[in-house]
């Protein structure tokens, strides 16, 4: 896996991923996301991928899955994340709560590399979920 990050100006950078995509990163949020927001987005993408994959393999009729992520950071430098809360809002038809709970747990404890790496680094990550019946 490879990514190149190139300085553009001031606190603006462009990341070019090994898979051929680019991401604008900007500490001032004028033309891109802040670096720590990008880290949260990566965590959200990693764990959401797992949850949706597990639910589909479990034959759950999922129509939407949104990971709402909220985080606290240390007051001093380095301003690392101290706690991250990942709340899944899963919408589908006749979803089984136990299966969704299992999918979230498996992602958190076994599959999501980003989550597991952050936790090993001392970040507390709390996972929760809610179900919405699709119309």
TrEMBL record:
Pfam families, alphabetized: OsmC
SUPFAM superfamilies (UniProt xref): OsmC-like
Protein name: Putative redox protein
Lineage, broadest ranks: Bacteria, Pseudomonadati, Pseudomonadota, Gammaproteobacteria, Oceanospirillales
